Each structure stands twice: as C-alpha cells, then as structure tokens.
Amino acid sequence: QVQLVESGGGLVQPGGSLRLSCAASGSILSINAMDWYRQAPGKQRELVAGITSGGSANYADSVKGRFTISRDNAKNTVYLQMNSLKPEDTAVYYCRQTITTMYSRNMYWGQGTQVTVSS
Fold it and tell me: How does strand 10-12 pair with strand 113-117?
C-alpha cells in the first residue's frame, strides 16, 4: 500500500510565501513524475507544476517565476515553494506521484491541503 501525506497549507497575506510538502510512504520501488495540482471553488483541477525523476520541472504560466517545485528522492517527498502569493492562488492543492511498487505502477493522490491568500 502507498500513502501520500501533504502538509504546509494555510492562510497567508498577498505577497507572502508558503511551502507545501508531500511525502509518500509504503512499499515503494521507485517514483517517476511528481506533480502539484490545485482546484479553486467552482473550477476544474489544474496542473500547477511537475518534476520528472531526472529533475526537469515545468510550470503553469500563471505561477512561473513565483513557484518552485523540487524533490528529495531519498525522502520520497516533493515540495512546492510558493512566493509572491496572490488571492487567485487560493485553492486546495493536491500532489500526485507516479509510483512503482512490487505489484504495479500507478498514480497516487494526496488528500489535499487548503491554501488561502487573503488580507
């Protein structure tokens, strides 16, 4: 079994920063892509940033230059450093990891963490 646990969300003022973490645990052989998505009320879930096993990152245009995704393979953890936050960044943030176990390769989702940007 594989479990993803997210942390780091909260309430922050515009212009502030937050760092999200998502740690995977279980019978993991390897982890390929690690991604962050978000879903605002009344909107579809959208990809915010992704990072490959080799460390190549990609970002949504709306967060380029403000957000940084990184990973620690030894800890099976992906991070999202969010700077210069705006009210439109308010959403539930979800991590997704593509994980290979002894039995299969699947995409797993975290439980979501609320990020609220407001004065």
Answer: parallel
Distance CA 45, CA 92 (A): 9
Q: Which residue has the tokens 């970002």?
A: 59
pLDDT in tens, 39-85: 999 999 999 999 999 999 999 999 999 999 999 999 999 999 999 99
Give per-residue burial for 4-19: e unless 16+ CB within 10 Å, then b.
Answer: bebebbeebeeeeebe
Element housing 23 (H / E): strand 18-26
Report how far residue 103's alpha carbon sits from residue 81's, in angstroms, rounded to the nearest whole number: 33
Least Cα distance to 81 among 97, 96, 63, 94 occurs for: 63
Count CB neighbours of 47 within 10 A.
Answer: 13
